[in-house]
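step: validate -> pass
step: tokenize input -> pass
step: predict -> running
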Amino acid sequence: MTEQNTNTTDQRAYIQLAGPDSRKFLQGQVTCDMETLTGDATINGAHCTPKGRIIFLFSASCDQQDNIILETHHSVKEIAMANLKKYAVFFKTEISDVSDQYKDIPAPSNLQRIRSGSADVVSETSDMFIPQMLNLDALGYISFKKGCYTGQEIVARAHYRGAVKRRMHHLQLSLNLLPNAGDDIRNSEGKSVGNIASAAWADQSTVEVLAVLGDKYSDCSEIQVGEQPLTSVVHLPLPYEIPASL
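step: predict -> pass
step: emit ->
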């Protein structure tokens, strides 16, 4: 059984991109507009596969030497660096792990992230969701005005053609075990209707989750998570509006 600690904080990793082409390189790779990144700002974005699936999420900032620092979940650090390096071979940028330099920076707890309506992408969910499934369009992770980037065609098609059939929702469940990210969600008829994006204990018997659900099942009253028993669902509000499908 997972320890019931509502204050658990997921360990963060920090990836540095140093070199004159770092910003140009990322501009062609990620969902956010890297041209808006300044020394005083932090912007959020996603790096996707050519099929538009999220490899990792990040918050980008600049250090005093104007290197770009990407904060992400520790479990996807190696995946993130490997994918960045794969695309960076023709650019003057050096990608390195600088997590030790930032280990004392406080981070929100898992429960705080869930209540803000923001799910991490972890190793178990890397390459599982397109950005809109995690409501990244509502959270400001996507620029629809910048030029092309890896996966952009899929992300833009979902936006302009209303092809988003799964969205993330905030649910409260009574469970004995904390779900894992990526766990399958089934309805009372045993049909797969979505996946867990993030989960945290709210108290000794209650779990709050961010769950990606198919539109037809977003108002379900009972679900089964993984191999756990069927449980009732309390739907909690998100702190933002989910964009309506076209």
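step: describe -> Residues 77-87 form the longest helix (11 residues).
step: cleanup -> pass
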